[in-house]
């Protein structure tokens, strides 16, 4: 996404900041720090007008879009920050990771006759993946999602999606309405180029499971004799404000498992550029049914590491396993 696409959003943010600064300056006209901030806002608005906004003042290359969205006053790309700015950025990212870590569910959660485990690994310090689990009187609610983009902006959208689902799910709405409302709220509060894939569901105490897949990778179910694939039946969240979503219902026996994951798993590449693929994942999991959730995840990670053979990671990675106890 280019700065041209984000110009209206950036300009609105800068004008709102300017108005707030002017209001505060009427009460503290001698505050040098506030006046410096006002000068920086005016400078950014001037750069928007002359077309130089979003260009690093050192190398004259585009500044990272996620950093511009997080702070519209930035003037340098990551490669040309001063040592003091680099330290400040590192401290901010550490704080952001602490907040994001606090949004993750309890590891090894057991509830409603289900046992669980998950692996959550960002490409950088923060991640755009979404993983959640929580129990209610109806069973165990689970969500796995992947927000478009990477870095800080994706992490902010992930936190927004987390808050949205945590508000909607306890309202005891039908699952298709939960996902539909989440999509509408996401669409109304993000840029047109931003979206999120999602799997949202409920695992009931009796083994019944329902879930809706909004443009996300297929859900895999490990049964005694097969690995069942359930493909997405809806578009990603945020594509259209009135998108309708369907619900898949099934039942798991004792020892069966559900495996959810983001595309950092099946779209991983080996040194020759070949993709890991869902077929390889399904074949790997076929004999893995007897394993506990943590063992299934360990098997996936070991095979992924062997496949990559030292090739760099290209995306965030999340794997969530629910097993009928």
Describe this entry's structure for a reader.
The protein is α+β, with helices and mostly antiparallel strands and about 325 residues long. The chain folds into two domains: about 5-80, Four Helix Bundle (Hemerythrin (Met), subunit A); about 100-325, Phosphatase 2c, domain 1, CATH 3.60.40.10. The chain has helices spanning about 5-25, 30-50, 65-70, 85-105, 150-170, 175-190, 265, 280-285, 295-310, and strands at about 110, 115-120, 130-135, 140-145, 195-205, 210-215, 220, 225-230, 250, 255-260, 315-325. It has a six-stranded antiparallel beta sheet. Strands 3-4-5-6-9 form a five-stranded antiparallel beta sheet. β5 (about 195-205) and β6 form a beta hairpin. α1 (about 5-25) packs antiparallel against α2 and α5 packs across α6. It is elongated and about 70 Å long. The model has no long low-confidence stretch (mean pLDDT about 90).
Main β-sheet description: 6 strands, antiparallel
What is the H level of CATH, i.e. the homologous superfamily of the largest domain? Answer: PPM-type phosphatase domain
CATH architecture of the largest domain: 4-Layer Sandwich
Number of extended strands: 11
Q: Give me the strand/helix succession.
A: HHHHEEEEHHEEEEEEHHHE
Low-confidence stretches: none
What is the helical fraction, as a range of percent?
A: 25-40%
How many distinct helices? 9
- What number of structural domains do the residues give? 2
CATH topology of the largest domain: Phosphatase 2c, domain 1
């Amino acid at each position: 996404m280019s700065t041209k696409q984000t110009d209206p959003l950036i300009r609105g943010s800068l004008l709102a900041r300017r108005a707030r600064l002017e209001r505060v300056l009427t009460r503290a006209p001698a505050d040098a720090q506030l006046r410096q901030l006002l000068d920086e806002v005016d400078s950014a608005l001037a750069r928007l007008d002359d077309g130089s906004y979003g260009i690093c003042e050192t190398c004259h290359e585009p500044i990272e879009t996620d950093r511009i969205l997080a702070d519209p006053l930035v003037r340098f790309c990551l490669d040309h920050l001063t040592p003091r700015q680099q330290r400040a950025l590192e401290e901010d990212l550490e704080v952001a990771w602490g907040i994001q870590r606090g949004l993750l569910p309890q590891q090894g959660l057991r509830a409603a006759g289900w046992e669980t485990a998950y692996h959550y690994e960002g490409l950088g310090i923060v991640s755009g993946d979404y993983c959640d689990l929580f129990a209610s009187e109806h069973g165990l609610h689970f969500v796995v999602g992947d927000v478009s983009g990477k870095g800080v902006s994706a992490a902010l959208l992930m936190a927004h999606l987390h808050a949205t689902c945590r508000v909607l799910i306890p309202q005891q709405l039908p699952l298709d309405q939960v996902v539909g409302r989440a999509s509408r709220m996401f669409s109304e509060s993000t840029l047109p180029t931003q979206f999120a894939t999602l799997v949202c569901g409920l695992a009931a105490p009796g083994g019944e499971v329902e879930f809706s897949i909004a443009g996300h990778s297929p859900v895999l179910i490990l049964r005694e004799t097969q690995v069942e694939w359930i493909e997405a039946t809806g578009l990603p969240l945020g594509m259209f404000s009135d998108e309708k979503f369907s619900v898949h219902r099934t039942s798991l026996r004792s020892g069966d498992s559900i495996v959810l994951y983001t595309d950092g798993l099946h779209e991983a590449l080996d040194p020759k550029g070949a993709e890991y693929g869902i077929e390889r994942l399904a074949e790997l999991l076929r004999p893995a049914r007897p394993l506990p959730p943590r063992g299934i995840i360990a098997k996936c990670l070991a095979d992924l590491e062997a496949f990559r053979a030292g090739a760099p990671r290209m995306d965030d990675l999340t794997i969530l396993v629910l097993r009928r106890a």
